[in-house]
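User: Design a sequence. Structure:
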């Protein structure tokens, strides 16, 4: 999950209500090519992955109260019969069944379930860059969905952020506090690089402390759909 959301939610975890609901996530591939879907949560630590050909979907169930959760598309993958291999983007240690986060660049659908006031916190993040467009929408719950599907990010990516299969975020490339916001809350702000992403995907995280315009909530117990190439 983006560093920013982790910071926002860290102090809320102990307030998790006694009554909490698991969530169902349907992952749909509407890209014209095969995408290898991946998911992972940090607490509890869990994850998985699956090849999705064009038009295919995959439904997963995430434990109530899960935090540090993300779903992402992997591209350019090749795996053997034992599920070992590699991906051009989003690779998670060379395995089909992810147990942790993937390598940048990634477009991320992030979530933390049943948090403060029994709310789910959701976002789309470009902090790790952009590869494939995403729509992250509730299928129940009556709350709004979010979308970041603007492939001009790849086509117009600044030269210093360009990489095979996508566009990196500046923290990945430069690793400095200015871009990674590692000096604590409120210590960094927008940069020309973050504005490049924000202008093209206004609802998505563009830098780690971009919380006010990038974090959304749904009632606990909401189910979701994550669509690649919506």
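Assistant: Done.
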């Amino acid at each position: 999950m983006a560093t920013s959301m982790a910071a926002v939610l860290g102090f809320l975890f102990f307030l998790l209500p006694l009554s909490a609901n698991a969530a169902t996530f349907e992952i749909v591939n509407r890209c014209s090519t095969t995408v290898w879907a991946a998911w992972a949560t940090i607490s509890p630590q869990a994850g998985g992955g699956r090849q999705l050909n064009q038009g295919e979907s995959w439904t997963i169930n995430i434990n109530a109260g899960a935090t540090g959760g993300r779903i992402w598309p992997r591209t350019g993958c090749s795996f053997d019969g034992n599920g070992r291999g590699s991906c051009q983007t989003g690779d998670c240690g060379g395995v089909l069944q992810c147990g942790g986060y993937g390598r940048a660049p990634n477009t991320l659908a992030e979530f933390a379930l049943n948090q403060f006031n029994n709310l789910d916190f959701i976002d789309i993040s470009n902090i790790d860059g952009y590869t494939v467009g995403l729509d992250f929408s509730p299928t129940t719950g009556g709350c709004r969905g979010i979308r970041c599907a603007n492939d001009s990010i790849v086509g117009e990516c600044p030269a210093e952020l360009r990489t095979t299969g996508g566009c990196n975020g500046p923290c990945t490339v430069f690793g400095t506090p200015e871009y990674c916001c590692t000096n604590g809350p409120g210590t960094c702000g927008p940069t020309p690089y973050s504005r490049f992403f924000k202008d093209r995907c206004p609802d998505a995280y563009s830098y780690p402390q971009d919380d006010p315009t990038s974090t959304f909530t749904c009632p606990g117990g909401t189910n979701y759909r994550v669509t690649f190439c919506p």
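The mean pLDDT is 92. Helices lie at 3-10, 152-155, 170-174, 177-180, 192-200.
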